[in-house]
Amino acid sequence: MSKKASKTIPETLKNASRFSVLQRDIVISAILSISAVGAAFYWIQNFEEPRALSQRITTVTANSADHQRVIIREVIAQLSARITQQTDNTELSKALNAKDLAARSEFEQALQRAFPEAVDSKIIIIGPQGIADERSETARLRNNIEIDMLRKSLNSDGIVIEAYSHKKDWFISFVAKVDKHGAIIVSFSTKYFEKMLKSLAGNTVTNELIQTYKTRRDVVIRPANRDYPESMQSRALSVPGWTLQVYPQPQTVQHLRSDSTLLWLVCMFCIAAISASHAVFFVRGFRMPKPAVPAPKKISPEESAQTEIIDLEKALAKKLAANRGNVAVHRHNFPAPDSSPPLAEIQQGVKRKSKPLAVNCFRAYDIRGIADTELDDSSCEAIGRAVASEALSRAQSKILLGRDGRLSSPRIHQAVVKGLLNSGVDVIDLGLLATPMLHYACQYFNIGNAIMITGSHNPSHYNGMKISLDFQSLSAQDIQGLRQRIESQDFEQGQGGLTNDSIEQRYIDRICGDVVIAQTLKVVIDAGNGATAHIAPALFEELGCEVIPLFCETDGNFPNHPPDPTVFENLAALRAAVAENHADIGIAFDGDGDRVAVVTARGKCPQADQLMMVLAQDMVVRNPGAEILFDVKCSRLLPELIIEHGGQPTMWKCGHSYMKRKMSETGALLGGEFSGHIFFKERWYGFDDGMYTAARLLEILTLAGRSMDDSLNTQRSMLSSPEIIIPVDDDRKFAIVETFAENQDFAEVTLTEIDGLRADFRHGWGLIRASNTGPAITLRFEADSEAALGRIQNDFKDLLARIDPKLADSL
């Protein structure tokens, strides 16, 4: 063996030994690293996460307790101030001094009107020796506790407040003296305060009100449960001896509990990364030769310019031709224009060639058109038969029916009833009412099928139908399915029955049993001569408001202003009435009552997304993590506020049908559209209701002791355009928006294409979409400066001009 060979073998063995040691070290390193990751995961899962969960529960409960303590203090102060105002009446003092029982009776009736939320309001005359010597007056008191409170009030300059039990019911009484001649006693059921606390707590916590007197400790209001007592938060209230104890609800704890799936995934990823990285060093790799990269092909400036030129007018023409051939592929979720053949008029189940039904009446959310030409009697009867047949195919045999106050509604109503009955369904006719009242009737009667005959906010010569089946509002394909059923005359035959009923008082009682308005407000209500004219004033009077009615006579001509309160000009009369009457707030409803607008005491007219900020903040503070829906037209400040206060924002399509379905799918507690449709799922049913929304808004304001102006002043603001509406034929609008979306080249932008195209830039956003309710495209812009707003508008205008120069002239 040569010397060279003898040297090579030991060197090889030496290298092999070194490699073996390296392998061993790599294995040991991998084991230690994986063990460290496992130990960290175990520590987080079993020690850190429970501690963090307990801290989160305590924080949420403490925040809720602090919030409720402030609100309760405000409510008690407001009630005390209202009672003090009654005691300052010099005429009452004179009547009590003279022991004028007749005058006392009149003042007592006025007191009861001033406190409609109280179960009892009375005025007690004090004799020369005090209350004890007035046997007749003593008999008017419930028990010795009220007598004791009366004596305390005579020795006090303030108001005596105390809770007590009487005949197994709990009451809270406020007692205040009137000079030295008498006293006012206002008593509330604890259910009034219990409902208020429940409203403040939402689904997050449950409350217990404790009253301590000397050694006695009474539970005035009991909590739903006392789970998680270790997280209970106690707060002293402004009434001596009163304590609020707040317990987290089980669903709150479940919501705050972290999902360990992500932690598991991170752990497994770390282990996989450690294993892979160590494996690379464990096994020797081979370097692969890099493939040759061909030099980029040089393109002449002329060729580049030619490539970038896009003839958008030709692109639009091509798309329209494709749509007419019914072969368009809609990559952006824009519904294709209808291309079906005209529908035959249906009379008594026999096909006849006659005037075709207007295809454009079958829209994305409902059926809507010009009443006298597009919705004639035979067409409406056919629609009734189609709805009835579809209901029967779903094993539904009853349909609720309502109508608004338009001049054409009785005629359409009669034709629809005929179609429904001739198809074999039973009809419950609820007469003239607002759309949300019909939705409530579905819940009350547990019948999920309804037809509302209404033109909503459209001018007086329009009308239409909003249709629900199986508690779901029909939209898009469902409505087109009705049209196709009419076209093929796929109708059931039979004879249904007709009955009449009313839902008005039940609707009022349901809202009054849910909403607490903590102080008397002067409210101007503009019903716009629509369907809320006969119900809204009565509702808000029963809620304890002083109501000033404006245009609260149903008149299908809408003589005072169009029935659309989202148009600023239509609120002129309401603004004037609020100012003239020094009202706290003005409320306006659209033609069928499912939309709401507001005028503040200072004459401001906030947009619906600003109202949503007030409602959403209250919702997510009481329900941490709650999902809130809003449409693509809403301000970007709304989702920022929802996130800031612990909620989950979700942007969705415009349209009441789409929003209601999304509310049902997601379990969102609140939803809203820029058009004024607002949907409550918490404590309500998830449909859009202008009257209920207004009531909840007043509840939030009065419980917080703030005006609408105060709430708006706390909101951040951006510059925004109104909703810009450009008339476009129905058969062109979707193609224009889709062409715009396919050819935009905006830089540094986030695109949302669930409904048209919304482009969110760093300093603002712009939206273009096809209207689903009329022949138009709509645009809206928002930015944090005039320069940014103008820049975004110009970008949209330039692209529209390349598609169709006539469209850009409207911007």
Automatic annotation (TrEMBL):
Enzyme class: isomerase
Gene3D superfamilies from the UniProt entry: Alpha-D-Glucose-1,6-Bisphosphate, subunit A, domain 3 (3.40.120.10), Alpha-D-phosphohexomutase, C-terminal domain (3.30.310.50)
Keywords: Isomerase, Magnesium, Membrane, Metal-binding, Phosphoprotein, Transmembrane, Transmembrane helix
Domain of life: Bacteria
Cofactor or coenzyme needed: Mg(2+)
Entry's transmembrane regions: 21-44, 262-283
Domain Alpha-D-phosphohexomutase C-terminal: 726-798
CDD domains: PMM_PGM
Domain Alpha-D-phosphohexomutase alpha/beta/alpha, residue spans: 361-491, 506-603, 608-713
Family recorded in the similarity comment: Belongs to the phosphohexose mutase family.
Name of protein: phosphomannomutase
UniProt organism field: Zhongshania borealis
